[in-house]
Task: structure prediction
Amino acid sequence: MNEKLDLIPLPVSVKTHDSVFRSPVLPVIEGGSVFQNEIDLFKEQLCLYTDQSGAGSRTENSKKITLVMDSSLAAEAYTLEIRPQGLILKAASPAGAYHGLQSLRELILSSGRDDGIVLPCAEIADYPRFPWRGFMLDCSRYFYSTEFIKKIIDALSLHHINVFHWHLTDDQGWRLPVQKYPLLTEIGSKRLEYRYRDMYSGGFYSREDIRDIAAYAASRHVEIVPEVDLPGHTSSVLAAYPGLGCTGGPYRVEDRFGICEDVLCAGNDGIFDLADAVFDTLAELFPSPWVHIGGDEVLFNRWDACPKCRKRLEETGLTHSRELQSWITVKLARMLSERGKTAIGWDEILEDSEQYRLPEETAVMSWRGRAGGLAASRLGHRVVMSPNTEGCYFDYRNYGHHEEIGRDLVSTAAQCYNMDPAGPEMTDSEASLILGGQANLWSEVIYAGKIAEYMIFPRICALAEALWTPRDSKNFEDFKVRLPVHQKRLERLGLLQYRGPLE
Result:
């Protein structure tokens, strides 16, 4: 191993020594009740890759991994000392301890020797640059299984990714059960599958599925941020409840991709009854303080022609139908606030909001380049950077070759690595509002879990380092040296990976 231990993301500080730690089995792990979840999970994560026949043995000569509470450290920080006689991991919180154990998990996955666990002795001090280190999975265009979602969440947590943005609704399928609106899943979760003749595809996650995945993520210190797209991308809603549209239908759950002109009717108060029930469901099932409300790619021609929407314009004192989106967004944000939740939306929610301004606490996710994030920070909003122009769209090809999987656009690992959520063009006050960044995997052309893995890895490794490692410590050439070792770890986790050019 090199002096950085080939860890990804690169820790803040690493000091290596000439000696090594050896153990024929996973050592005894001690840490008290505050870290027991992290200890139990760490052993479970490694059980397939290490001999645990002696784990937990307390013989006199047993080597140990000792977890120590250190309140002087930051919330997600940890220090790890690897000595010949044992390991000491210090953290101020379970989250910090988990990150430290994941770095240790990487090293053990690389050990893989017949004589047990062999680790280079070192001292590591580590903490994240940004608090929001995210990944979004679109489960509307393709319905991924709960088992696959868990596999991805576990792999994300290995890289200290701590936000799983779960895109649950769109034109092509509604995946969230809402008891007051049963047709959302009875009708809205299924569509004609364009790849097969006269065949329906889809599905939805039960309340038990969602609670199970949320608990699984929480145990790995990954926060699930659910997204329900409103008021556009709602063909699946209109197919189930056509009275919520401007024309009354007929509508269908779309089997086409792209932007659809039918959206929720801005002049119909029933759309807020729907939002009430949806938000109650989200508040019950997801502990995160955030709810993503979408807000992107709304077309306004239906509102232009709709008598109810024109009447709403008069009531609100607005001039143009496109301004109704900001009126809707403000109402949705306030409804979430009443439930103790904070709204976040795509950067379109900033547009035409002069009269109905977003509540200051509403956050903006900038996807159409960086401009939306810059504008939001200058207005005092918190921002998550996810620019499709800088490597963050994982449905784009890994490399610009026509044989590569993905849309006919390119997001390279180098772009991911060089994406800086708080770039030098920002003032200090603007940069202070940047929560972090994330990658997005839209699934129009990603119709299998294995294809999704190929699109995620190793680009998420590059983005994880962009969001965790201090700016001055980043070096893409060094990342490329460490990556082959790391990819062998991912192979042991059963993850398919892209292996072509990285830039």
User: Anything to note?
Assistant: The mean pLDDT is 95. The longest helix spans residues 94-111. The CA atoms of residues 304 and 310 lie 7 Å apart. The chain has two domains: 13-126, 132-492.
